[in-house]
Amino acid sequence: MMGESSISSDMIRGHLDAIILRVLSEGDNYGYEIIKAIAKNSDGQYELKEPSLYTSLKRLEAQKLISSYWGDETQGGRRKYYRLTGEGAEAYEKALAAWKVARALIDQLMERQE
Amino acid sequence: MDKIQQHVDRLFRPYKGSKQAQELKQEILSNLQARVADMTMSGVSREAAISSAIANIPSIAHLLDEKPRVFLYRFWVEWVQRVLLFTLIAWIVTMPFRFVGNGTGSNTLLMFIALGIGIVYGGLLLLKRYDRKTGGMNVQAALRLRKIGWLLWVLLMGVSLFYTTALHFGSNLWFSRPIHISGPYQFANVAIDYLKPFVTLLIPLALHMVPKLLMKYEVGEEDGCTE
Amino acid sequence: MAARNKVIVALAMVGVLLLVYIHCVLIPNKLERERRYELEQQSPLTHDVSTILPYKSQYMGDASNLTNLYAHLPLNGVKRTFQLYPDDLTLEINYLEKAADVGEEQVSSALLYNSIAAFALIDNLQTIRYRFPDAIYQLTRGDMNQLLHVDLAADLLEQQTWKKEVQGRIKEWTKESSRFWQ
């Protein structure tokens, strides 16, 4: 449905945690809506698979960067919502800053200078 | 949403009883439902939406903790208790062997095993202060062990039945002579020779209970954790 | 959990009771029965004829059949060797104990009984000779028919007939059979 080359998918995987933290920094959310938000943020270029989402969420929760609570839906299955913790917000800012430094450095290293 | 429910039920069937798995199941189910609802809203047919949602989660094995935290003391107490119960039943069921004579050894062995397990069980009950002790236990490994246990047992049974048959009736079958059992005593002997190996059923049964009990005593989110 | 503990205690008690019952009642009874049965097999009056039926044969030449037959008859506790004379259709049994030591009266009736059984079961057996270190006891099928006033044949071996016709009269025949001692 949405295009996704394996190369970009591999490169993104290393930053999945930060990408999810970004979504949650904009408000509490549950699994499918997180996937949707990421697809929207990528203009439909990247779709996160559900198993990868659960693995990331679990890791983030174990690191206490996010916390979870159950929603009170009356119909259908119960939704599990995730919330950014204070540590999570800090970790997100750090990851973003680190990425910016790395991106500049990699640009510098990879782009041929005329 | 029946098809989704079915798919999720099937994914989680081996983990029935695990709290961790139940929570993950709820979460996965609600997300799949949200996906299908969203896709049908944007014009995809229900059928297509459901099969695409299902294709998203083909398996969950790697999503579950290999070693969930388990209330160790409670787990061991109930496991030992159940094994003790089964051993006692086996001991009583094989008691008539003593009367025939053949199989007295097996029955005595069962009695000593039951006695040993009983002592271990009594000892465990005295260690009540460890009631809230938890530790990581490998449920996947327990599931594998259970499978291996049954497999080996079936194999062993096959060999043993073949051996007993060869011993008693081998020459009759080889020379296609009619089988002749000369009286109730010999019949009892042959029957006991066939039944004796089934005593080993205790081993796969004991293994069989491990994963179920591990999941039963898994530490849930609402339980406080103590090391 | 607690309910299962009660079941465990109950099962353990049932097990112990069963064990005691088997070892203190059932097994001693069985041994006593077997002992009494063994004892009965030593006396012509109470011997169980059904144990010798499998050794029915037309010919006396089968040595293992004869040894097995005598292993299921009175006097089977006395050590013995077998000798066959097929040309004379004669069976000779050498007992290693003195007849006097075993008991003359008991030996006489047992030998008579055993011989009736052997002649009834083995069709072409004509003479049996029992050798003791201190005596010889010999009789033929003819002697036997004469003494019993019946033809020895397999139909005598039917349980009721045997009890009435053979075991019921063995005592009186024994009295008349002293002439077979040599």
What's the CATH class of chain A, please? Mainly Alpha
Structural class by sheet pairing and helices of chain A: mainly alpha
Largest sheet of chain C: 4 strands, mixed
Structurally, how many domains make up the residues of chain C?
2
Shape of chain A: elongated
What portion of residues of chain C is helical? 40-55%
Largest interface: A-B, 20 and 20 residues
How many angstroms separate the termini of chain C? 83 Å
Strand count of chain A:
3
What percent strand of chain C? 5-15%
Provide the number of structural domains of chain A.
1
What's the CATH topology label of chain A? Arc Repressor Mutant, subunit A
Compute the average pLDDT of chain A: 86
What is the chain-wise order of helices and strands of chain C?
A: HHEEHHEEHHH
The unreliable regions of chain C are none
Instruction: Report Rg of chain C.
Output: 23 Å
Percent of residues in β-strands of chain A: 5-15%
Oligomer: heterotrimer
Q: Could you give a short account of the major beta sheet of chain A?
A: 3 strands, antiparallel
Task: Provide structural commentary.
The complex is a heterotrimer of chains A (114), B (227) and C (182). In chain A, strands 1-3-2 form a three-stranded antiparallel β-sheet. The model of chain A has no long low-confidence stretch (mean pLDDT 86). Chain A has 114 residues and is mainly α. Chain A has helices at 6-13, 16-25, 31-41, 50-62, 86-110, and strands at residues 29-30, 66-70, 80-84. Chain A has one domain: Arc Repressor Mutant, subunit A (Orthogonal Bundle). Chain A is 59% helix and 11% strand. Chain B has 227 residues and is an all-alpha fold. Chain B has two domains: 2-63, no CATH class; 69-216, no CATH class. Chain B contains nine helices and two strands. Chain B has helices at residues 2-12, 19-41, 46-56, 72-93, 95-100, 104-126, 139-174, 184-195, 202-216; strands at 69-71, 134-136. Chain B has a two-stranded antiparallel sheet with strand order 1-2. Chain B is flat, with a radius of gyration of 25 Å. Chain C is α+β, with helices and mostly antiparallel strands and 182 residues long. Chain C folds into two domains: 1-41; 49-180, no CATH class. Chain C is built from seven helices and four strands. Chain C has a four-stranded mixed β-sheet. The B-C interface holds B 77-78, 81-82, 84-85, 88-89, 91-92, 95-96, 98-99, 111, 114, 118 and C 1, 4-5, 7-8, 11-12, 14-15, 18-19, 22-23, 26-27, 30.
